[in-house]
Amino acid sequence: MGISENGMFGASKGKVGKLVYYKRKGKNIVRTIGRNTKEPSPAQLRSRMELSVASVFSKVVKPFITYGFAQHIVGKDLSQSNVSTGYVMKSALIGEYPDISIDYEKVVLSEGPLLSADQAAVTIVPEGLEFSWYVAEQIPWPDNTDQVMVLAYFPGTEHILYNLFGPERTAGKALLKISEPLLGKYFETYIAFISADRSQVSDSVYTGGFNKPA
User: Fold this and answer.
1) Which sequence spans correspond to the domains of the chain?
2) pLDDT over 70 for what percent of the chain?
3) Phi/psi at 98 (nearest 5 deg)?
4) Of the CATH numbers 2.60.40.10, 3.40.718.10, 2.60.40.3090, 3.50.30.30, which one belongs to the domain with range 42-210?
5) pLDDT tens for residues 177-204?
6) Containing H/E element for 154?
7) Contact partners, residue 112, CB within 8 Å, separation at least 6
8) How far apart are CA 56 and CA 76, in angstroms?
């Protein structure tokens, strides 16, 4: 049953026939429902799989992209997951249906005006992963107060380990603690910076994959 919240000419909410009315970000949305009995074309099957692969990845990395794409959704009817999914579909998918996968080197997890990590690298240490980057002799304020964001993504289990507000840019390194068993798993790594007031970020930088399956 559909409900008209402000009289017969007001916004509706609920189901009316094959239409569903609801609100999203303060806007009234209507969509159709029902089963499509027509067989999907090869192009449709590919598009569906591409969307699925990109959406699943974006859901897993949501804590990181919540800050990484925050400025991209200001004033727009979008979510950070929408932005991430679009980037993955546009630039980071490889293979042919049904063997579609992600080229992790081309993944973008944040995008912004801050200086990105220069000469970024990751080293496996007993405690986990040591991220490092070049530090200039003189870094002006407020760049010197930027904090590092680091992430390790585990494709085999679809989960992440991360630190959104790590050491300041001037530290030159940051430790992401990871247990010894996980250090032997396949994972991909990324680094970015976020301003002290959380209003701006840098472009993310891919820092390599480890223990990739043959």
Assistant:
1) 42-210
2) 83
3) -95, 15
4) 2.60.40.10
5) 999 999 999 999 999 999 999 999 999 9
6) strand 147-154
7) 68, 71, 200, 201, 202, 203
8) 22
